[in-house]
């Protein structure tokens, strides 16, 4: 993966003869050293930057648990529901595998929403990271498609009716809509062919996600990390090697995240699910309220807020596609909301809007709930289409620090700490000597 210029970094010289022989023919170890050991990283990254590592951990967890579950699953409408129950009761640690996978979907989306929120707050979508951001949005869309198809596989009431409602949305597309819906179904209703298609795609898409994640990380290593100040790296004093500084921080964050994950798995595994999904799908009995999983509720609320079916579909998909063009909607030359007082207020109102839409998506589509959903849907789009362009023009940002190092030193002085410069005899690793200065953005 191409990255910052590491011309000042000493060349990687393996001490082990076998490693040296292999690396001279296929430089995997040199690549790992450059991209995961000495890679220069801003020294002021906070714990919001650990969600990238958490998401990588969750992707691996979901793929491994999913492959194992697929060994015992049957994509057949006559067998699927009972087979899931069989996994829970008769497969060794099948209950644990199933809960790791089911709860893992929620943990995955919680982490990705935190990752996106951090990107929005600190302006990680701004030049030169536009492609990095767009790849992240593509990953989000693929995750939603994968999660939706996975929710159908247990073949409970919410599974079958959720598939019916969502696939029916495509029928609103003029001319080709009905044909697309029939193609998705594999027939004229949600049935065995639908379950087979969704299972095949649910198994395939995580590997597509993994491929896009590789591109996402590649793009990150070309431009380098953003940081809480939004100030570009100017010298080696602004950075530290990725390892051990960031690997230890990421590792600690993953352990803390796993504690939350484990609490849900072992104590309240069904808390985030719907009880109706423990009833086998019956196309003749409609549930009182058809709702998707919690992480899709904000988009479901936007869909139902629009009285026209086609309009609702356009708003729902538009709420995702608009994320792709954010880098060109934000007109401010300052990245971080830390120095943008008006944008900071707008951002936190946006967070409240997303949470409110999530709650409204779980309520009946009637009365005050619809009115509130329309109000918050308006603000969702207004944040991107009105506030981002206008605030960048009218807002007066706070003064930016001259460099990342100066910001770190200023904070240390406020706390009463001092940061002595590392010396050759101190036994420590000097950031100046361990990393090269990345290119300026």
Task: Explain what you see.
Keywords: Electron transport, Heme, Iron, Membrane, Metal-binding, Respiratory chain, Transmembrane, Transmembrane helix, Transport. Its cofactor is heme; heme b. The chain is mainly α. The chain has one domain (36-406): Cytochrome Bc1 Complex, Chain C, CATH 1.20.810.10. It is 61% helix and 1% strand. The chain has 17 helices and 2 strands. It has helices spanning 17-25, 28-37, 51-70, 80-90, 94-121, 130-152, 157-168, 177-185, 192-223, 242-267, 297-305, 309-321, 326-329, 341-361, 368-394, 404-414, 431-434, and strands spanning 40-42, 239-241. A two-stranded antiparallel ribbon has the order 1-2. Helix 3 (51-70) runs antiparallel to helix 9, helix 3 (51-70) crosses helix 10 (242-267) and helix 6 crosses helix 7 (157-168). The longest helix has 32 residues, at 192-223. It is globular and about 65 Å long. It starts with 16 loop residues before the first helix and ends in a 7-residue tail after the last helix. 33% of the residues are buried. Mean pLDDT is 92; it is low at 1-7 and 422-441.
């Amino acid at each position: 993966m191409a990255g910052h210029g590491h011309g000042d970094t000493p060349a990687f010289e393996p001490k082990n003869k076998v490693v040296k022989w292999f690396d001279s023919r296929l430089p995997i170890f040199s690549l790992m050293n450059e991209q995961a050991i000495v890679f220069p990283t801003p020294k002021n990254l906070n714990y919001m930057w650990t969600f990238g590592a958490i998401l990588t951990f969750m992707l691996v967890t979901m793929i491994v648990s999913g492959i194992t579950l697929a060994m015992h699953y049957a994509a057949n409408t006559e067998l699927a529901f009972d087979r899931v129950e069989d996994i829970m009761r008769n497969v060794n640690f099948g209950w644990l595998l199933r809960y790791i996978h089911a709860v893992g979907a929620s943990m995955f989306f919680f982490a990705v929403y935190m990752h996106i929120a951090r990107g929005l707050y600190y302006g990680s979508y701004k030049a030169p990271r536009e492609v990095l951001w767009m790849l992240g949005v593509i990953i989000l869309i693929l995750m939603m498609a994968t999660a939706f198809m996975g929710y159908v596989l247990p073949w409970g009431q919410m599974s079958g009716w959720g598939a019916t409602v969502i696939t029916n949305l495509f029928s609103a597309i003029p001319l080709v809509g009905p044909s697309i819906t029939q193609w998705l179904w594999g027939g004229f209703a949600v049935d065995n062919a639908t379950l087979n298609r969704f299972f095949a795609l649910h198994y395939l898409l995580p590997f597509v996600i993994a491929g896009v994640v590789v591109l996402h990380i590649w793009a990150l290593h070309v431009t380098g990390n953003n940081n809480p100040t939004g100030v570009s790296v100017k010298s080696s004093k602004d950075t530290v090697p990725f390892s051990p500084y960031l690997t230890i921080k990421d590792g600690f964050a993953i352990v803390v995240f796993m504690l939350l994950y484990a609490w849900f798995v072992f104590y309240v595994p069904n808390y985030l699910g719907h009880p109706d999904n423990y009833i086998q799908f019956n196309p003749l009995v409609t549930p009182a309220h058809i709702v998707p999983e919690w992480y899709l509720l904000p988009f479901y609320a936007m869909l139902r807020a629009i009285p026209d079916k086609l309009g609702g579909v356009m708003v729902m998909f538009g709420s995702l596609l608009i994320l792709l063009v954010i880098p060109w909607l934000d007109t401010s030359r300052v990245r971080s909301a830390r120095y943008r007082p008006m944008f900071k207020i707008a951002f936190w109102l946006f967070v409240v809007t997303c949470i409110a839409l999530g709650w409204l998506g779980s309520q009946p589509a009637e009365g005050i709930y619809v009115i509130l959903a329309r109000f918050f849907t308006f603000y969702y789009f207004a944040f991107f289409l009105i506030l981002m362009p206008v605030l960048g023009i009218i807002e007066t940002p706070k003064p930016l620090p001259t460099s990342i190092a100066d910001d770190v030193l200023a904070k240390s002085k406020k706390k009463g700490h001092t940061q002595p410069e590392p010396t050759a005899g101190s036994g420590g690793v000097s950031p100046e000597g361990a990393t090269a200065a990345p290119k300026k953005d």
